[in-house]
Design brief:
The chain has helices at 37-50, 77-85; strands at residues 2-8, 15-20, 24-28, 58-61, 67-71. By secondary structure, the chain is α+β, with helices and mostly antiparallel strands. The protein has a five-stranded mixed β-sheet. A hairpin with a 5-residue loop joins strand 4 (58-61) and strand 5. The longest helix is centred in the middle third of the chain and has 14 residues, at 37-50. The chain starts with a strand and ends with a helix. 30% of the residues are buried.
Length: 87
């Protein structure tokens, strides 16, 4: 299943949840947006939030953009919906 995420680098704490626009999942990470560190941290945070292995979350597009498209296991659809509705 493909999911759009919006990465907020430099946050006070790492957090996954909330909505940006209609259906983009917000991922706040402490790491800065330098040398792909924020992207790596965001993928790891999503994997942890979905309780899947880190390699199960794959970046499809948006390596240098704040809005990214990722692939997550199909069984995570319910968890993604819950995270989107979290505040």
């Amino acid at each position: 299943m493909r999911v759009s995420i919006r990465v907020r680098p430099g946050a006070g704490r790492t957090r996954v949840g909330g909505r940006y626009g209609d259906d983009i999942l917000v991922v706040a990470v402490q790491q800065p947006a330098v040398d792909g560190r924020a992207t790596s941290a965001a993928l790891a945070a999503v994997a942890k939030a979905l309780r899947v292995r880190p390699r199960a979350v794959v970046l499809i597009s948006g390596a240098t953009s704040r809005t990214k498209l990722i692939e997550v296991p199909d069984g995570a659809a319910g968890a993604v919906a819950e995270l989107l509705n979290a505040s």
